[in-house]
Design goal:
The structure is a single chain. The chain has 15 helices and 19 strands. The relative contact order is 0.18. The protein is an alpha/beta fold. Strands 1, 2, 3, 4, 5, 6, 9, 10, 13, 14 and 15 form an 11-stranded mixed β-sheet that branches. It has a 4-stranded antiparallel β-sheet with strand order 16-17-18-19, with helices on one face.
Length: 532
Amino acid sequence: MHDVTRRHFLKSLGAGLGMLACAPLSMAQPTKRRPNIVYILADDLGWGDISCYNPDGKVSTPNIDRLAAQGIRFTDAHTTCAVCSPTRYSTMTGRYSWRGRLKRHVLPHFAKPLIEPGRDTIASLLKQKGYATAVVGKWHLGLGWQAKPGKSFDPNSWDHKQVDAIDFARPLQGCPLDHGFDYYFGIGSSNNMLPYCLIENDRVVKVPTRRKDPEVYDTEHGYGLVSDDYVSQDLDQILWSKARTWLEKQCTAPKQPFFLYMPTSAIHRPCLPIDPFIKSSRAGLHGDKTQELDSIVGKVVALLKKHNKLENTLIVFSSDNGAQPGDPVRALKHYAENDWGQKYNPQALLDEKVDESNSTVKNWKTYGHRVNGPYRGYKASIYEGGHRVPYVLRWPGVIKPGTVSDRLICCTDFFATVAEILGTPLGKQAGEDSISFLPLLAGKTEPAGLRRDIISEAGNATKALRRGPWKLILGKTGLTGNHKKMNRPDELYNLQDDPAETQNVVARHPRIVKQLYERYERYLASGGSRDG
């Protein structure tokens, strides 16, 4: 661990000793276990894309369903934001992203690292306890790219042509190795963002030199560079191959526990499934790619079982935000006009007769599949479909098989859960918005100290405070992450009575609106929400 990280850890350790003394005795036995941990984070996968959540859907996910049957499935789990970079920051740090510099949307292509130097992550907590740590997949938290001699670029700009100013032969100045990971392999951002190349540790594997074909790599932007080893359709299989190699090594290592973070590229657009999964679902390319992802989950489980590691491994599966409605019509038309896309038969997908009367999805083919189940909204939305996600965990001997929980949890909470498993107290400057759900995993049905509320965020920085059944979308009375007034009306929903958010009851409950807004202001000013 770097000196600055070690100093930060020791400071946090001292500040949190009182918390350790107050830890419930009922949790003593689970925290003595040191499980291996595999955390699989899908990209743009909806609550309704998993068949155990949405049995009426048109996608089949038997491997993820099996994890749920052998563990616990949360039905009221949320990301902190309905887009990816903020969620990834929150997952790694246990902190709302808007407390830092990212106030809206996601990081641009060549952004500076988002995780602050010295801030603890799940990986650094585990590494301090002797774990081997790796991340294989999509990072999208900034990598510290360097410019060519005599060139410069703006890390906050979305200008694609800045790719020509990047020196891909120089080492990265802020990669996962600086945040507690021993090993990194993957892509810097989403699979429709620059650059189109693979990265290992702090170096690009092969320098991208070829101008990309937009129909293969991105349906929106025609400017960029591709490396010879980057194949969009095969990307998740390439990532799985590297994850498998690392896991094989750890499974044969003597007695060292491991943590593998697998943020997949799937199922972010362009959704290009490998050939065996083409037409495998009834939900177009979106569904086919989901089923490819499910097969990778099955391979992870099979590898752990092969090496007798499955029974002492905590497996987590979730998504970084809600899904897009389906396949974008524009992309299907583009594929239909190019020879490359013919094996997908995109014209048949375009011709399929489905109900597209909902104006929200008029530019999408949904195939009658509800990607976010019964919930309103999609990726980037403040409504439930934007941030309510599947959350499945399997941990034999601790989690009772077949458990279904409707308790409110947040992606930040895994940070505190890991800390409690390790017996590591959290100081005031670590996991500020993280509340352990270990008691729920251990079978406690009504434990004290669980999460009671959550702040959710849309891609445009609109925020909502949820407490109990009430969800207040902060409008003219609310603040965005950069402390500017919103310009939209308040909305209040009772999710117990109206989970689809169809009836705005804000006018009927001014007292509740006032209470929720006051609590939001307190969390905004306090720097943390862990104490509720």
